[in-house]
Amino acid sequence: MSSSSLRERGLSSRNSEEEDKNSLSVLKESEDSKIHNSPSGSMISAKDYDERSSLAHHKDQVDYQDNLGVKDRNENMHKSPASNKSKLTKNFSHADDEERSDEKKRVIFLNNDERNAEYPFCSNYIKTTKYNIISFLPTALLIQFLRVANIYFLIIMILQSIPAISPLNPITAVLPLLFVLMVSIIREGIEDYRRYRSDRTINMTKFKKYIDKEDFEEIQSKNIKVGDILLVEDGETFPADMVLLKASNGLNAFIQTSSLDGEKNYKKRTLPKDFETYANPLDEKSFKFIGKAVIESPTRNLYSFNGKIAISNDQFALKTNQLLLKGSNLRNTEWILGLVVYTGKDTKLMLNSQKSRTKQSHVEKKLNIVIFFILIIQICTCLLLAIIMSIYDSVDDDNQDYYLGDNNSDEKAYLNFFSYFLLLNTMIPISLIVTIEIIKVLQCIYIVWDSEMFSEDDDAGCHVSSTTINEELGQVKYVFSDKTGTLTQNIMEFRALAIEDEMYGSIDDHIRRKASKLEQKLEMEYSFKSPKLDSLLELRGRSKGSTTVITSKSGRNEITLDGDKEKAIESIKLLSICHECMPEVAELDGEKVIFYQGPSPDESTLVDFAQRQGHEFWEVTEGSCTIKYHPESGVTNEGSKIVTYDIHKRMEFTSSRKRMGVFFTDALDGKHKIYIKGADSEIKLRLDKSQINDKHLEFIDDFLARSSVKGLRTLLYGIRVLDEEEFQEFQLDIAQAEDDVLNSERLLEKVYEKWEQEIVLLGGTAVEDRLQDDVPQTLEDLRSAGIKVWMLTGDKMETAKNIGFSCRLLTEDMVITEVKGKQKAKNIFTYSFYEDNKSMMEDLKKRAIVIDHEALGFLTTNPDYLKYFITISKTCDAVICSRVSPAQKAEVVRMIKKDDPTNITLSIGDGANDVSMILEADIGIGIYGKEGMRAAQASDFAIHKFKYLWNLTLYHGRYNYIRISELILYFFYKNIIFTIPQLYFAFISNYSAQTYFDDYYISFYNLFFTALPIGARSLWEKDIDFKIYSDEEQRKEVKNLFPSLYYVGQRSLIFTKLNYLIWTGSGIFQALAIFLVHYFTFHNAIITEDGYNGGHWMTSISSFTSIIIIVNLRILLTHRWINAFSMLCIFIFSITLFYAYTWMSDSIQFSYTYQTSVMLHTSPLFYLTVLICVGFTFSIDLFIETVKVNLLGRPSAFIRKEINTKGYISPEARQVLDRLVDQNDRKMARKDIEREEYLRERRMRKMEKQQRKIDRKHN
Known about the structure:
Layout: H1 3-8, H2 17-33, H3 46-52, H4 55-66, H5 70-76, H6 95-101, E1 105-109, H7 113-116, H8 136-144, H9 148-160, H10 171-203, E2 206-212, E3 215-220, E4 229-233, E5 241-247, E6 252-256, H11 258-261, E7 266-270, H12 276-279, E8 291-296, E9 307-311, E10 314-318, E11 323-324, E12 329-331, E13 335-342, H13 348-351, H14 362-395, H15 397-404, H16 409-423, H17 430-449, E14 463-464, E15 476-481, E16 488-499, E17 502-505, H18 517-522, E18 524-525, H19 531-538, E19 547-551, E20 558-562, H20 563-577, E21 582-588, E22 591-597, H21 601-612, E23 615-620, E24 624-629, E25 641-651, E26 659-665, E27 672-678, H22 680-685, H23 694-709, E28 713-722, H24 724-739, H25 744-755, E29 760-771, H26 775-784, E30 788-792, H27 797-806, E31 815-819, H28 822-828, H29 831-842, E32 847-852, H30 853-860, H31 863-875, E33 878-882, H32 886-899, E34 904-909, H33 915-920, E35 923-927, H34 934-938, E36 941-943, H35 948-988, H36 999-1009, H37 1011-1020, H38 1032-1039, H39 1042-1045, H40 1047-1050, H41 1057-1082, H42 1096-1118, H43 1124-1147, H44 1157-1161, ...
Parallel strand pairs: 15-30, 15-34, 16-18, 30-33, 31-32, 32-33, 34-35, 35-36
Antiparallel strand pairs: 1-8, 2-3, 2-4, 4-13, 5-11, 5-13, 6-7, 6-12, 8-9, 9-10, 14-36, 16-17, 16-29, 19-20, 21-22, 23-24, 24-25, 25-26, 26-27, 27-28, 28-29
């Protein structure tokens, strides 16, 4: 930025030689005073000072600042431009020692790096990566070996490389493990590199640091320090938490905090009170401030900030209104100067952020437990075989010595233990881990390719960042969702205006149209139509309707609204004046457009509505509001007039007040008025009972009720007239409250409460926050699937509740409990409410809780109440948490996860304020939106619209859980049936640790012969699929069934202990049958006409052949959706491939089975034996599958049977299905109650244990 541009913006200042001399003389004079005080005082730039003094003199100046006298301060007070203007000027002496000793505060010297270096402030360098170049490989390897299976395979690889104990080739263990580790580590590296690139972009962003006068230097964000004064220009993002010192607008600036709290509308930030002189861009001296700030230590609370700043001996209070948060953007303000107060990890954004963590699916955790269990069994089995072998050798030692010579039985048993450990290692196959890794990657590719999750607006589909938790998408129990930009488009639409007993517009559903580019940019849609209102405003002269007279409390002043037209004009004028919006000019396609930005999107919509009805909000200052309107018809045209109203006080909206007001003098009639608008509950409490019209109030109540049913955002508005005496009294009350700096906010609240009374109700408005496409249906289906939906938002409770109704998260048939404030939380979350909730659960009543941040904060710090809140809220169909910070969002997710780790949590959001809860949840979903890329970058899956969550969870998630779970069960089955014959053979081979199968048969079994069939099944297996139907009605009918089938994964009904035992037991029994039949058939049997008898390798090949056929028939039997590629994998790439290898190994001498297969296949005994084994085991498998399908009575089996036989669901079948679903819901509800009872007892025991510890500690 050039010096000339700074001068044009009012940022330049002139330092004359005389001023420099005066400053130096003041320094000298103050030094001579010898009175001890804090570092503050008059500002002199480092640049000018260095030109006039040596380093020694510079030290003297620092000493001066540390010893600034009270006498000098008092003498200079009259010279301070601000000192005569405010009562804020205070003695700053002896405060420094107190502030330094107070650990809860931090002292910052303005633009003084040397002094600030004395304090351990953190740097502004941002790092969200998990690794660096040095730590990447060891840390990534460590993470991989958190898997029990990988540790096991590492041990196997080491043992198999020792020739003394390994009967197998070591290469068969080394290569698969290296492949698994390589794939996993590369994936980790790619994910972390993306985070590194994002961090680098932020750290390298350049900003302008104030040096002196109009001089600035460019510094990178990572080099910004506490105490720096930065220039931030319109549209730029604040690189750190800053305090506003100057603004191009004069006394205020506007920021957008959507990346922090999700609210996209502008918020006003003001300079410290009575800071006008230092903030005046035209005042040369205003650039010459050196001083210090004392502020609170960093906290996560976005809505709290306190401190004070001292400049040129004047002290000013700092509040939240002066704080510019890192991550927010400067809007509608040309430039600002700000003091950096928090940097890096101390900023509120980073304190509300959460470090990324490595996620492991619950199925994988179960798999680790199973692997550990098998490992224990394997060790015990090997130990038992070694002991038996040692005993056997000692008993038959003489016979063995005859041909083997002397041997040490104990040493041999020790070696045999490890040999058998290697032979039985296929009980835990490394190929299972390899297969799971590959299958999950391919499943993710299918998710990315899903055309129903492709956004035409963004020309992109789903993005997958984590391939480790695909199956958890099918097990979700809780969804935690942001509101703004996630459920809603944040596009507001004005729907209706109610005035006394007339309504203009409509609150009924209407045909939707796609918002134009202009409307999307302005984030509002205008389709309001009311011919009745148009005719009324265009009417010349008096309109029909009653006359309303509004009088002051004393009766000495009044206004008359004669007819419906004057009431409508007064209402529209109220909407154009009573707000906190700012006009802004935007350029779209070369066209300049005026629109409005305010603290809430619906407020901007109301101002826009007033503008379209002829009252155009034109300009605003601290003490005025300018409106352009037509005095006759209310329609802006050539006859428009510009009127400026004197604003005496704006009473801003807060979450506790739930209303806002404007105290002003009407330039048209000279009357003193208070306009007020807000939540209906607040406005009704403040109505003037003497001026209430019961008929009008009844109409307004009906308007509110009908609007609420439609999910519209409503408010009421009214007016109060003041006489001259009340006008003077109100001004005096305001002045007195503002004079008390420390208590001004509390005192102003009391003043507002006093004067925002005796209101005359004029009417109400209804605004719709436009939802994203298909959000209501998506939420309804998620709830039907048994998923509990929580909406976590930074919006006020009323807004959040309205959105809850509009998106059908809340419904009229729900029992809704509202919890606002600490006292309400105390009253509600008790044992009696817990019992009531349990009764409602048994009756399948829908329940919901709406709670604010204050109540939530109280509950999280009070275990006695928290235990009931957790139990009750977890079982509710919906929970809405309002005004919650990003950290609170993550805490809520953590609270639910910690209470019951078996429940899968999913968080979805679109802004930086959602990153913490996205990282905290088991599954994080980011939405590509207008809030930036941080949510999408931090997520496991990124989508473009909320409705795609349906496909991601109910479709892909459900399938992936079924596929991965059955893959694991089948893998253990096929490896048990293959490995157990090795165990049986040990008893035949005198425990000699000889292998039953050839080395290459063992290696190729999992690698080639049985790999593709289960792989194909894990990619394409499905029970029902709506996508195969071309008829829309049939497609929709089948799709509507999916929510009722989601319980399978949610309740983890496939990969269970029982199913594992069934599959494993089946494998053990079938392996026994195969081994016994083949061994006793071929042992000493004559195979050929030439008299060749069956031997070990004939028995081995025959057994292996039966195993290959049996495991393929088993997987074919469990297929619910057979396709050509699955059949190809089974019969060509498994059975045929096995036979091809068998004949190849028979022809080429490289294995033990050389020239064995030809002889074996010439014997009819071989075919008969294989047929008996296959037929017997297949009959058992067929019986088990038949029982599972027909006797368990699950909805999924019934639906599949109906669709496969008839192709549709008949009305009779629908009734049966509804009954099954109801039975299933009641069964699940009972299990939930039992589970919560167990968890409640566990919480109680934990609390009692903690209390005993406390008691012992005290005793």
